[in-house]
Amino acid sequence: MPDDTIHVCYCGNKKIFRGLLLSALSLAMRTKRPLHLYILSMDLHEQNPAFLPFSENQIDILNAALREFNPQSVAEQRDLRDLYLTMQQHNKNARNMYTPYAQLRLYLTELDNIPDKIIYLDVDTMCMKDIGELYDIDISAYEYGAVIDNIGRVWTDKHYCNSGVLLLNLPKIRETHLFERVRRRICEKWMWMPDQSALHEFGSARLYLPRKFNEQSRKLRDDTVIKHFCKGIKVYLILPLSYNVKQWERKKVHKKLKYFCFDDIYEKFDELEQKYDMDK
Predict the structure, then answer these.
(1) How many domains is the chain partitioned into structurally?
(2) What sign has the CA pseudo-torsion 145, 149, 152, 154?
(3) DSSP string of 50-81?
(4) Quick check: is 1 in a domain?
(5) CA 48 to CA 218: how far, in whole Å?
(6) Per residue in 181-223, pLDDT tens?
(7) Buried b / exposed e across 239-260, counting CB within 10 Å, b at 16+?
(8) Which distant-in-sequence residues (6+ apart) come within 8 Å of 93 by Cβ?
(9) Are 215 and 221 in contact (CB under 8 A)?
(10) In terms of DSSP bridges, do strands 161-169 and 117-121 run parallel, antiparallel, or are they unpaired?
């Protein structure tokens, strides 16, 4: 029988485990096929005491949660500390508004036993429909697929994409050396949104995906597959005001965003939190 597993990559550290668990639960609860999650992390406690990899206990909790919905699903953590430190010794973007963990996805092409096709998701994403709808898109002629950035299209370039959801074709990326060039640019030049901007600069074969795969606005649509809880702008009277509500800020999700479509996921999360020590 053909392998129908959907491969997904997250990056992060121990501190944001609850966000990772919520996002992963949304995948598991909305998707019928087995999931294989690749969790990229590392220990950088010398830079910041909070920069620690997910604990073995947290990965065990994640696996237990996934297998409630499909016994074939699995999550594994990869330690990229040595690789990151070796390749990014002179990284001019090691300290900016984003943590170094956001750059770990750029090392997927350097890892063993990684599938040719993989979805990358920011931790602040929640799945509303079957993620297979995204995974099954033909990406064979492209390096990656991405959705236009809701803010960047106005302030940067109409073709500027958001990198919080990426459908990656790793053989093509290796062929064009895209990630190598992006990593080099990050080392050479400080940027406000480093790897996202470098991907825009060097990407030569990009598939523009429908917004339903990375909905960045406040309004959810009937066809939304992935909601991205990224920073946004709301116009109040004539003033543009920024907001930044994450899915783990449940009261704000209910009160400010008026989202109640994730309540079944919150309920399952609460069950797990009562059962396990998530901070261990």
Answers:
(1) 1
(2) positive
(3) T--PPPHHHHHHHHHHHHHH-TT-EEEEEE-H
(4) no
(5) 32
(6) 999 888 887 766 778 888 988 888 999 999 999 999 988 999 9
(7) eeeeeebbbbebebbeeebebe
(8) 103, 186, 187, 190, 191, 194, 195
(9) yes
(10) antiparallel
pLDDT in tens, 125-135: 999 999 999 99
Range of the domain at 27: 6-275
Q: Is 163 in contact with 170 (CB distance < 8 Å)?
A: no
Tokens read off for 66:
């996934």
Helix, strand, coil percent content, the chain, rounded in steps of 5:
40, 20, 40
The CATH number of the domain holding residue 36 is 3.90.550.10
Dihedral sign from CA coordinates of 37, 270, 71, 277: positive
Q: What is the pTM of this model?
A: 0.93
> Checking DSSP bridges between strand 239-243 and strand 232-236, what pairing results, if any?
antiparallel
Give the SS3 label for residue 204: coil
Rg (CA), the chain: 18
Whether the Cβ atoms of residue 14 and residue 54 lie closer than 8 Å to each other? yes
Query: Position of tokens 């984003």?
Result: 98
Nearest CA to 27 out of 119, 104, 98 is that of 119
Residue 224 in domain: yes
Residue 218: strand, helix, or coil: coil
